[in-house]
C-alpha cells in the first residue's frame, strides 16, 4: 500500500544535531499520520514522535524540547529534527505511517543514528 524510505542518519558527537527524513510513496492519499520510532541494541522499539496532517504533534518525554517533528504533505515526507543529541539517543530510527481504513503497520527500513560521548 505504502512504501517508506528513511534517510539522514549518521554519526554525531553529543550535543550535535541531525535531521532525518522519511519519504512515502504508493497510496499516500490514505496517509493521515506519520511517526518515528527507535530501537537501541538489546531494547524494544520505542515511540519517539508523531505528527498528523492537522499539524498536531506528540512526543515521547525523553525527547521533548530537543526533537521536532514536521511533515510536508505535498511531498508526503516526514522530518525529525534532532538537537542536543545524547549518547542515549543512539539506535536505529524507523519511520511509520498510519492509513485510513487500514490497520496494517507500515515501516521503513530504518536509519542508524550514533551519538558519541
Description:
The protein is mostly beta strands and 117 residues long. 0% of the residues lie in helices and 61% in strands. It is built from no helices and 11 strands. It has strands at residues 2-7, 10-13, 18-26, 31-39, 46-52, 57-59, 67-72, 77-82, 91-99, 102-107, 111-116. Strand 5 and strand 6 form a beta hairpin. The protein is globular. The model has no long low-confidence stretch (mean pLDDT 95).
List keywords for this structure.
117 residues, 11 strands, four-stranded antiparallel sheet, seven-stranded mixed sheet, mainly beta, 0% helix, single chain, 61% strand
Q: List how many beta strands DSSP finds.
A: 11
Mean pLDDT: 95
| Radius of gyration from the alpha-carbon trace, in angstroms | 14 Å
Order of helices and strands: EEEEEEEEEEE
Which structural class is indicated by helix and strand composition? mainly beta
Strand content: over 45%
Task: For the record, give the distance between the C-alpha atoms at the N and C termini, rounded to a whole number.
Answer: 40 Å
Amino acid at each position: 500500500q505504502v512504501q517508506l524510505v528513511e534517510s539522514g542518519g549518521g554519526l554525531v558527537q553529543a550535543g550535535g544535531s541531525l535531521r532525518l527524513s522519511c519519504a512515502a510513496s504508493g497510496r499516500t492519499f490514505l496517509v493521515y499520520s506519520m511517526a518515528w520510532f527507535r530501537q537501541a541494541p538489546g531494547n524494544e522499539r520505542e515511540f519517539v514522535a508523531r505528527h498528523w496532517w492537522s499539524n498536531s504533534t506528540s512526543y515521547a518525554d525523553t525527547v521533548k524540547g530537543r526533537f521536532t517533528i514536521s511533515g510536508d504533505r505535498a511531498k508526503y515526507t516526514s522530518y525529525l529534527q534532532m538537537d542536543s543529541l545524547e549518547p542515549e539517543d543512539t539506535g536505529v530510527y524507523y519511520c511509520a505511517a498510519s492509513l485510513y481504513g487500514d490497520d496494517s503497520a507500515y515501516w521503513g527500513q530504518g536509519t542508524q543514528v550514533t551519538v558519541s560521548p
